[in-house]
Amino acid sequence: MEHYDLIVIGSGPAGEKGAAQAAYFDKKVVIIERAANVGGAGINTGTVPSKTLREAALYYSGLQQRGLYGIDYSLKDNMSVADFMHREKIVVQNEQHIIQNNIQRHNIKLVHGEASFTDVHTVRVSSPEGDTEISGDFILIATGSEVEIALGAAERLEAQGVGSDVVSMPCTDRFDAQPQDYRDDILPDVSNRQILRVSIEAGATYGWERYTGLHGLRIGIDRFGVSSPATDAYEYFGLTPDAVATRVLEFMKQREIA
Ligand SMILES: Cc1cc2nc3c(=O)[nH]c(=O)nc-3n(C[C@H](O)[C@H](O)[C@H](O)COP(=O)(O)OP(=O)(O)OC[C@H]3O[C@@H](n4cnc5c(N)ncnc54)[C@H](O)[C@@H]3O)c2cc1C
C-alpha cells in the first residue's frame, strides 16, 4: 500500500491549495478526485461558469457597450445556448489546465476515483478500474463548504436550548439510492413541527424541498449575478453560522414551533 504524508480528498479550491502548500514544504502528497475534471465547484459548476455566463449575458445584451459608448448595440439574431456556452467552455478548460499544471509543478499525484475511509489513516479509492487503498499521516477532507456553516449554526442553536443534528449530503443521488430504512434513520419521516428540517446550500434552494419537506426551511441563494470574495458573499447572503441560527429561530417563532 502506498503511503503519503498527506492525502487530500477533493481537487476544488480548498483541496488544490492545501495540497500545493504541503507539497511546497516537500511533503509527499496525493489528491483524490472523483470527478472527471479537477477544480471542484469553483471551476466546473459554480463560481467560474456562473460568472462567465454572467459576463456573456452582459456582453450579448449590449448593456456594457451602451454604458461605455452611448451607442446602439444590436443583439445577434438567432442567439442560441451554444453562443453562451462557447465562452464558458473555453474559460473553464483554461482554468482546469492551470490547476493541472499547479498539481504537476508541485509533484502531487492525482488519482481519480471515489474516496472513502477504511480507518483513520487509510483511504479506499474506488473507480471503474477497481479499488485501491492508500495510507497517509494526515488526510485533508476538502469535499465542499456548507457543512462547516451547518455545524457552527447547530452549535449556536444548541447553546440556546434547540437540539440540532447536522446531516452532510455531498451527493443527493447517492442518498436517494440508499435503502428506505437508512434514509428514514437519517431523515425521519415526521412533521416539521416535530423535527424542523433546514437545508443550507450556497446555491439555489430549488430541489431541497425533497429533503426539508414543503414546510421546512431552505436557506440558499435564489438570485444570480453577485461576485465577491467568498467571505463577503456568504455574509451578504446570510450563509454564516450566526445568520443561519437566527433564521432558524425566527422561522420556529413564526411557525410557533416549540
Ligand atoms: C453557482 C455557484 C456560484 C458560486 N459563486 C461564487 C463566487 O462568486 N465567489 C465565491 O467565492 N464562491 C462562489 N461559489 C462557491 C465556491 O464554488 C465554493 O465555495 C468552492 O468551490 C468550495 O471549494 P471546496 O474546495 O471546498 O469544494 P468544491 O469546489 O465543492 O470541491 C470539492 C471536490 O471534492 C470532490 N469530492 C467530493 N467527494 C469526494 C470523494 N468522496 N472522493 C473524491 N472526490 C470527492 C468533488 O468532486 C469536488 O471536485 C459558487 C458556488 C456555486 C455552486
List the helices and strands and how they pair.
Elements: E1 2-9, H1 13-24, E2 29-33, H2 40-45, H3 47-61, H4 63-69, H5 81-105, E3 109-112, E4 114-119, E5 122-127, E6 130-141, H6 146-159, H7 172-176, H8 180-186, E7 198-200, H9 209-212, E8 217-219, H10 230-236, H11 241-254
Parallel strand pairs: 1-2, 1-6, 2-3, 7-8
Antiparallel strand pairs: 4-5, 5-6
Short description:
The chain has helices at 13-24, 40-45, 47-61, 63-69, 81-105, 146-159, 172-176, 180-186, 209-212, 230-236, 241-254, and strands spanning 2-9, 29-33, 109-112, 114-119, 122-127, 130-141, 198-200, 217-219.
Explain this structure to me?
The chain is α/β, with parallel strands linked by helices. The protein has two domains: 140 residues, FAD/NAD(P)-binding domain, CATH 3.50.50; 109 residues, Rossmann fold. The strands form two sheets. It has a six-stranded mixed β-sheet with strand order 3-2-1-6-5-4, with helices on one face. The longest helix has 25 residues. The termini are far apart. The mean pLDDT is 89. Bound molecules: flavin-adenine dinucleotide. The site of flavin-adenine dinucleotide (FAD) has 32 residues, from α1, β2, α2, α3 and β4. The site of flavin-adenine dinucleotide has 32 residues, from α1, β2, α2, α3 and β4.
